[in-house]
Specification:
The protein has 264 residues and is α/β, with parallel strands linked by helices. The strands form 4 sheets. The chain has a 4-stranded parallel sheet with strand order 3-2-1-7. Bound molecules: flavin-adenine dinucleotide (FAD).
Length: 264
């Protein structure tokens, strides 16, 4: 099978599918040889996978994926997807029974029809650092649907959960200031780094950023632990710490009967 797009989604999916192929024997498919019978090719137009993350994260992840038996094709732009075959702009072909398109994000079309509010090429609403839209002070946008400047960076604030979370907390204060006719603060994104899951058993290549005053590459069990901790923190943010602890306890009790593949 082929996955088009070597961003976080394509990378996580390829590792997860490799893991899934390996656990299929637990479901009775003993004749399947995961490495040889289930080929996974990850095709990326840029020169490296995970282009949005630091190069060393990308390199470490590429090594781990290769070890897992995922074939990487970088600097190859998919030009055509036909039944059973993919053709790249450079003339290469890849045979694939199944192709998953995981290349890029686009905001919903409705955003470009909101009474002339300007959008960028991805369809996100252009906002200022106050999160007000470019031409209307009374319309705010946050999260994935907003293209917010990131000072000191050529890019905008990335479309990530941590950015949406920070903007939500910011907007709570900004809206209170607006209602009191006080000047609006400006949003500053703090990059806490990125974690990329590479399957249940394998290591996780990742990065911790701005908070520690630099960047640190973390891999292996520690990275896996961080990934799981972040998920638990997410549950705590949604349901409170008491429910998170109960949920964690319930998970440990049920884990032997849970599916051995990631379903979410
Ligand atoms: C596969 C995948 C993996 C990801 N992994 C990570 C990760 O590991 N770390 C990370 O930081 N970020 C990750 N992200 C990105 C993260 O999910 C988003 O940045 C985050 O969810 C953005 O939050 P949001 O509230 O802006 O948008 P969303 O979470 O997308 O919420 C928008 C909501 O609005 C609803 N909606 C849309 N249109 C309408 C409409 N017209 N009317 C009413 N409701 C509507 C949608 O159904 C949705 O529920 C991942 C994203 C994907 C797709």
């Amino acid at each position: 099978m082929a996955i088009v797009g070597g961003g976080a989604t394509g990378v996580e999916l390829s590792a997860e599918l490799r893991n899934t192929a390996q656990v299929l024997s637990a479901y009775g498919l003993h004749k399947l040889d995961p490495r040889h019978d289930v080929g996974i090719v990850l095709i990326e137009a840029g020169p490296r996978i995970l282009p949005a993350l630091q190069e060393r994260v990308s390199t470490a992840t590429a090594e781990l994926l290769t070890k897992l038996g995922v074939k990487l094709m970088t600097s190859e732009t998919v030009a055509e997807v036909a039944p059973g075959i993919i053709r790249t702009a450079s003339g290469k072909t890849v045979r694939a029974d199944l192709t998953v398109w995981a290349a890029g994000i686009r905001a919903p079309a409705i955003l470009s029809q909101l009474d002339g509010l300007p959008v960028n090429r991805l369809g996100q609403l252009n906002v200022r650092r106050t999160l007000q839209t470019e031409i209307d002070d009374n319309v705010f946008a946050l999260g994935d649907c907003a293209a917010c400047p990131w000072p000191g960076n050529e890019k905008n604030v990335p479309p990530r959960a941590q950015a949406a979370h920070q903007q939500a907390s910011f907007l709570l204060k900004a809206l209170a200031a607006r209602l009191d006719n006080r000047p609006l603060p400006e949003f500053t994104y703090r990059d806490f780094g990125s974690l990329v899951s590479l399957g249940h058993f394998s290591a996780v290549g990742n990065l911790m950023g701005g908070v520690i005053g630099g960047n640190m590459l973390i891999e292996g069990l520690f990275a896996r632990f961080m990934y799981m901790s972040l998920y638990r923190l997410h549950i705590a943010a949604l349901h409170g710490y008491a429910r998170m602890v109960l949920d964690t306890f319930a998970y440990w009790l049920r884990r032997t009967t849970l599916p051995r593949v990631k379903l979410h």
